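Run log, item B.
One chain of 466 residues. Sequence copied directly from the ordering sheet:
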Amino acid sequence: MSKTRSQKTTVGQVDDDVLAFTAGKDIQLDLQLVEEDCLGSAAHAVMLSRMKTRPAILTAADVARILPELAAITRSARAGKFRITPADQDVHLAVERTLTEKLGDLGKRIHTARSRNDQVAVDLRLWGRARLLDLLDASSALAGTMLSLGRRHAAVPMVGRTHMQPAMPSSVGLWATSFTEALLDDTGVLEAAYALNDACPLGSAAGYGVPLPVDRALTARLLGFARPVHNVIHGVNSRGRVESVVLAACSQVMLTLSRLAQDLMVFTMPEFGYFTLQREFCTGSSIMPNKLNPDVMELMRSRAATVHSLAQRVVMILNAAPSGYNRDLQDTKEPYLEGVAITLSALRVMERAMATLTVNREALRAAFTPGVFATDRAIELVGGGMPFRDAYHHVKEHLHELAGQDPVAALRAKTHLGATAGLDFAMYALRVKSVAAAVKSRRTRLATVAARLLPGAGNTPGAPVS
């Protein structure tokens, strides 16, 4: 039998293989959470200094020494210089170790009245808050681009399809703004996720509180949350649950992008030629010199499936989990970080692709056949007094009579709400502007919150991710 090897860690002596197994990918993943961990630690330190205890756990002078070191760690992480060692296991103990190296016993006191359970929960909510703002911003940007496309080509005829077959007269304006509205609906789902995420679990500790007069409302205010999570068990139980809701919102966004990508895959085929993607958004073949492949759109479909599966993965980890912290929750972190990152990247790439899309008017108009006007003609006959079913059969038997119909006239005839001549572009523009303005306002507020808490840290959580 091989000799057991172990390492001394902050939380005890741990077998090397056990340490590697339990730490998993946290050493790498947690590098994304250093700024959030420092911000949460700063708020916790300020709260400890204001607790009415004798002797004081931390004094105002102690906090004045701690905050600059947390700001220095933040700058180090942003420069790619901060390291999490296997013995640290995660970002929380890495930050504590660094503080202790700089401040001695003062660094050891900062963990009073908290656990890594509520610490990681607040880190992920801070991270999620900033990324949700990015997702809202990117969704509204793409919605605005689709709106601009639809407005510019509002009167360009396009065959509407059901079952992928020619159906009724439509327009590029109607098609494009259908995705504007879908994306605006998606921002509503993202807003719901933001509201759920906007509660502070810090102070729940291991899930049962502590025998100290911690001020959880103060900590929530310092970090810019709308409220604290009230029940301390729920503060821990909500770990993973919030992430699953955010991923579910991402899944809806990716569903929209996947359907848009599929439309573009079809409508940019030479046999259709309705639209042309710019060369920069296509790739060539290693063997066929003539190829320009819509790889971006193909990957949109694949990445959508990936995000759907990541959302389900988190749900399945949580399924039937007992109350209180269980180490299973650690494995919700990777799919969460990955799923959000994929969605944000997909939105940004799709927005650029759609901003440069070419609309081929001649090909769109040439696609109209007499049958596309059949339903409109049947309804016209009903308006003249013929029962609908009689009109239906009459038109079906006389499709040849519809040759030469004007698709533009067909578009102008549909003036009711939301139809080809009844699109409210101003309403869409106002909704897009409202989302973008709300994001900007929140970012400004959260940047102010972070700058007050950690002056000297530079860019702060809440700023857009590049």
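Observations after the first pass:
- The first helix runs from residue 16 to 23.
- DSSP finds 18 helices and eight strands in the chain.
Flagged for discussion on Thursday.
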